[in-house]
Amino acid sequence: MSMRRRVRNAIVLVAVLALMLFGVPLAVVLDRLATSQALTTLQRDATRGVAAVPDNVLEAGSRVRVPAGSRGIRIAVYDARGGLVAGAGPDQSALAARVTDGREHDGRDGGDLSVVVPVLSDTTIAGSVRAAVPLARLRAATYRMWALLAGLAGLVLGIAVLLARRSARRIAEPFERLTVAARGLGDDRYDVELPRSGIAEADAAGDALRDSAREVDLLLRQERDFVRHASHQLRTPLSGVLLALDRPAPDVPAALARARDLETTIADLLSLRSRTAGSCDPGDIAAEAVRRWTTPQRPIELRRDDTGDVAIAEPALRQSLDVLLDNAVRHGAGAVTVTVEPYGETVLIEVADRGAGFTASATPGTGLRLAEGIVERAGGSIVIRQRAPYPRVALLVPAAQPGSQSGPHSGLQPGSQSGSQSGSNR
Fold first, then answer.
1. Kind of pairing, strands 125-134 and 105-109?
2. What are the tens digits of pLDDT across the range 238-287?
3. How crowded is the C-beta side of 308, counted as CA atoms within 13 Å?
4. Are residues 7 and 151 in the same domain?
5. Does 183 map to a domain?
6. Is the dihedral of CA 372, 375, 379, 383 positive or negative?
7. Beta carbons within 8 Å of 323's beta carbon, 6+ residues apart
């Protein structure tokens, strides 16, 4: 059974129980109230009849004039032994025979609800006046009140059903949306947007699902980025190893050097996956990169100033710089220059070559996007300082604060241009 139906049935059941707990006692009270009101009216008419019947006339056996009663009430005069003298009533009344004690009596008498009031003389009980109403009539009035009460209960129950359906929908809809959103996670829909329902439990579950979806999305993105990054970064050293060994006279030393570079790259990738913070000397990283990338055909020149450490882990900076050097070697031309210098509160690590540069419609390639993601996590950015000709692409990395591991707090200088805005196809 669905939650909506369970909630609706529970509300209706509570409404039915409340109506029963309230309606049954009320029906009993109404029955007693009708009887009490009838006895009050009978007592009034019987007392009025006693005042209209002289005791001496009753004792003398003369003809008695029976007073008129209220609507539907029958008045009769009885002698002291309970025999009918005049009026409408049974020939013999057991209730009227009990007035010899001089007191008023009421209750069932035959098929009537009756009140008998004695007619007193100076020394004896002359007789009595009986006021009665048929029990069937009294019951009919009670049944009409019960029918009215049942109709009112039915109306209340109908309203309760409508309100129960509305409340059940309001309570169940947030959880139904949660179910749809949770199933959507299996279809790679992680942008969970659930409106606030005002139900604390549903809102808390929605917040938890939203946070979990973001975490899952982030983890999946990180894994996909890692796979793309690994594929991109491992391609060059693997190609170098294969080229060194695929010659007619295999260049084993070159292959070993490339293998060592491959080992470093793998270690860096694993370190990047753990996303550990840290700091390093950008000049040393640049010098090592120049050594690894320099070839007789494409010499690489290093220009460095004393900059101090930067707030980025060594593997992250090495891999980001490798991306820029790989682009310059693959897609550029002429001599390549690596520059390391202070740049306001950041450190600039620039790679320039003598190639044609970026076209106006160029968009960031896989390598630049990966490097940009790595540097941005440290609080830095990639900027294209010159698009064409002779492109100049730089990493802007925040300087490390004294005594701290990392410090992603700085930004670009005025006039700098983000790589994500400028675009690159390299």
1. unpaired
2. 776 777 677 777 777 777 776 776 666 676 666 665 555 688 999 999 99
3. 14
4. yes
5. no
6. negative
7. 232, 233, 367, 368, 370, 371
